[in-house]
Amino acid sequence: MAPSAAVATGTAYDIDSASSLTVVVNKHRPLDPQTYVPKPLSRIQAERMRSDAAEAYKKMVRAAKADGVNIVAVSGYRSYDTQASLYDSYVQQYGQETADTIAARPGHSEHQTGLAMDVGNSSGVCALQDCFEETPVGKWVAANAPAYGFIIRYPKGEQGVTGYTYEPWHLRYVGSDVLAEQIHAGAKATGEPDVDTMEEFFGLEPAPDYLP
Ligand SMILES: [Zn+2]
């Protein structure tokens, strides 16, 4: 992948380096190297995240708790090998075409950056399902996650851009609340085209499918 600097709102962001907090990973943009391992990693419940993202995550969880909402860590860092077995199991079960819509191929998963966490409710209600958005945690993160540097990485109606259907539970740390708020704000502008994905914000091509 050729190095490039994405410029948005007057600030240059490194969207190419695997270790960058603003790295953009999608079906057109594998991690470089594909076997990248983030360091250091911190534990969050039974999951792991890159330590800087973990700090921000814990701050967010504390704030939610103060509002009476219990955010549970469902799935955080996944290694290349873990992602490979997850993807392969979906291919066995559903075939490659369907597998590609529900799990990233190894080296193409945001979970491998250590910057993503799938969150849930302590009751487990609507875990990893559309109805998650109507749950206490779903509502809380939609309204407040950007203030802690996290975006809903796969918003509703953006499958043609991100390559994934709506995932209201998949939070991605982008390094700053300012940037997260800017990306998030794109979803609220009415009458204008949405700019609520990293692809749109950084002026990248849509990545609905893997390149042949
Ligand atoms: Zn996820």
TrEMBL record:
Ranges for domain D-alanyl-D-alanine carboxypeptidase-like core: 47-175
Gene3D superfamilies found in the cross-reference section: 3.30.1380.10
Superkingdom of the source species: Bacteria
Signal peptide: none
SUPFAM superfamilies on file: Hedgehog/DD-peptidase
One family name in Pfam for this protein: VanY
PANTHER family noted in UniProt: D-ALANYL-D-ALANINE CARBOXYPEPTIDASE, PEPTIDOGLYCAN L-ALANYL-D-GLUTAMATE ENDOPEPTIDASE CWLK
Record protein name field: D-alanyl-D-alanine carboxypeptidase-like core domain-containing protein
